[in-house]
Amino acid sequence: MSFFKDKVAIITGSGMGIGKATALELAAQGAKVVLNGRNAERLQKAFEELKAKGHDVIAIPCDITSAADCENLIRQTIETYGKLDILITNASISMREKFENLQPEVFSQIIHSNINGSAFPAWYALPHLKKTKGSITFISSAAGMIGMPTGSAYSAGKMALTALAQSMKIELDGSGVHVGIVHVGFTQNEDAKRVLNAKGELVPVAPRPPYLQQTREQVAKAILRSIKSRQFKTVLTIVGKLNAFMVRFFPGLVIRIIMYSQKRMKDMYE
Ligand SMILES: NC(=O)c1ccc[n+]([C@@H]2O[C@H](COP(=O)([O-])OP(=O)(O)OC[C@H]3O[C@@H](n4cnc5c(N)ncnc54)[C@H](OP(=O)(O)O)[C@@H]3O)[C@@H](O)[C@H]2O)c1
Predict the structure, then answer these.
(1) Cα 104 to ligand 1 centroid, rounded to whole Å
(2) CA 34 to chain centroid
(3) Is 246 inside a domain boundary?
(4) Is residue 158 a part of any domain in this protein?
(5) Which of 10, 24, 49, 92 to mutate to test the pocket of ligand 1 (most atoms within 8 A of CB)?
(6) What is the model's pTM?
């Protein structure tokens, strides 16, 4: 029997992208899945897709940057399923703009989305995860290990997530609750994916080499493996693992490599 059979799992930001792929994988392995997102139409489509496959699923529209919304997300989950075993804080917004051009409120929005948007659901979920000795997984990025150009607020938010995960892991020692953080690498995005520009407008993601990207299904499977094995830190993709090693021992060199590859990418795509 699957490890995930009858486990109740919330995946924030699961109307599309990696969140939806993770929800599909969990449901396929027998979990009862709670979908979440702000766009009601997109969420409904994802809900219908899972329902059509015969999965046990509910969808709760809410904005994870609102503490009140997160309280409601957890309350509705408990009212429906009576328990919570797994929380995956996946929803977040990214960006593509140099720091100097970012409006302060946009910087703040991205930070808020990446750190409070994980901390708020985690805070409301924790009492329930303690009862089930469940699991909380924060979805981070390679940008959570080194500050990325045109990604300052995003990198800062993802790095803050590491601190949150570390503090929680230490504080929850002996509670039975698993805390994990998954540093996702380049992943094939949905066409609808948007990030913020300097003015806070939604724009397409910057192009990146296809051969460096994992599929969303590969990422979803890796997230499930990290939950099952109760791993603290998981780094995805070869480039991500190399980055983690290099950042640890040769951070200055990594920054120089990124500067060089930025110039190359500019020459290739502009
Ligand atoms: N794709 C990559 O290459 C990559 C690489 C490294 C890390 N990651 C990380 O992986 C996670 C998922 O990324 P993705 O590429 O799948 O993103 P995505 O395609 O943009 O999907 C993000 C999802 O989050 C939801 N969302 C965003 N803000 C929200 C909010 N305030 N409240 C509730 N839902 C919200 C969006 O739905 P609504 O707009 O309807 O709310 C959407 O369903 C993120 O944490 C990201 O940082 C991705």
Answers:
(1) 21
(2) 15
(3) no
(4) yes
(5) 92
(6) 0.96
Q: Is residue 78 part of a domain?
A: yes
Instruction: Compute how many other C-beta atoms are within 10 angstroms of the C-beta atom of residue 190.
Output: 16
Ligand 1 atom nearest to CA at 143 = 6
Q: Are strands 195-196 and 202-203 parallel, antiparallel or unpaired?
A: antiparallel
Structure tokens given for 239? 């480039």
DSSP H or E segment with residue 254: helix 251-269
Number of Cβ within a 10 Å radius of residue 130: 13
CATH code of residue 85 = 3.40.50.720
Element (H, E) at 71: helix 67-81
**Which positions ≥6 away from 59 have C-beta within 8 Å?**
34, 35, 36, 43, 44, 46, 47
| 33 strand-pairing partners | 9, 57
pLDDT 10s digits, 165-216: 999 999 999 999 999 999 999 999 999 999 999 999 999 998 788 888 999 9
Q: With beta carbons less than 8 A apart as the criterion, state whether 33 and 26 touch.
A: yes
Q: Which two tokens stand for residue 202?
A: 């939604």
Atom 13 in ligand 1: residue holding the nearest Cα: 18
- Pairwise CA distance, residues 16 & 59, whole Å: 13
User: Is position 12 within any domain?
Assistant: yes
Structural domain span for residue 27:
8-240
Q: Are 114 and 157 in contact (CB under 8 A)?
A: yes
| pLDDT greater than 70 at residue 42 | yes
Cα–Cα distance for residue pair 36/87, rounded to 1 Å: 11
Which residues form the catalytic set? 154
